[in-house]
Amino acid sequence: MMLQTTLYAAARSRAHGPTTALWHAVEVHRPPAEVDGACELTLCGSLARISTEQAWPVAARDVCPGCALLSRC
C-alpha cells in the first residue's frame, strides 16, 4: 500500500497592471530550506515567490481562487 501526502507552500505573486498581488499554493517536492524565497510555478499556473513564514492555506482575503480550489482536490 502506498500513501502519498501532498504538501503545499504559500507563495505571493507580484501585482502586475490591474492585477493585485495574491497568495497562491505551490506543490512542494523539496525540503523547505531549498525553496526559501524561490520563484515557483503555482497550482493555477502563475509564478510566485514562496514565503516560508506563511503556511498554506493562508488566512487572508487575497487568496487565489484557483489555487484554493485545486489544493482541496
Write the layout of secondary structure elements.
Elements: E1 7-12, E2 23-28, H1 32-35, E3 39-41, E4 47-55, H2 65-70
Antiparallel strand pairs: 1-2, 1-4, 3-4
Descriptive account of the structure:
The protein is an alpha+beta fold and 73 residues long. The chain is 14% helix and 33% strand. It has 2 helices and 4 strands; from the N terminus they run ββαββα. The chain has a 4-stranded antiparallel β-sheet. The longest helix has 6 residues, at 65-70. The relative contact order is 0.28.
In short:
This protein is an alpha+beta fold. The protein has helices at 32-35, 65-70; strands at residues 7-12, 23-28, 39-41, 47-55.
Low-confidence spans: none
Q: N-to-C terminal Cα separation, in Å?
A: 20 Å
Number of helices: 2
- Per DSSP, what share of the residues sits in E-state strands of 2 or more residues? 25-35%
Overall geometric form = globular
Structure class: alpha+beta
Q: What would you report as the Rg, rounded to the nearest angstrom?
A: 12 Å
H and E order: EEHEEH
Helix content: 10-25%
Mean pLDDT score, rounded? Answer: 87
Q: What is the topology, as strand order, of the major beta sheet?
A: 2-1-4-3
Largest sheet: 4 strands, antiparallel
Strand segment tally: 4
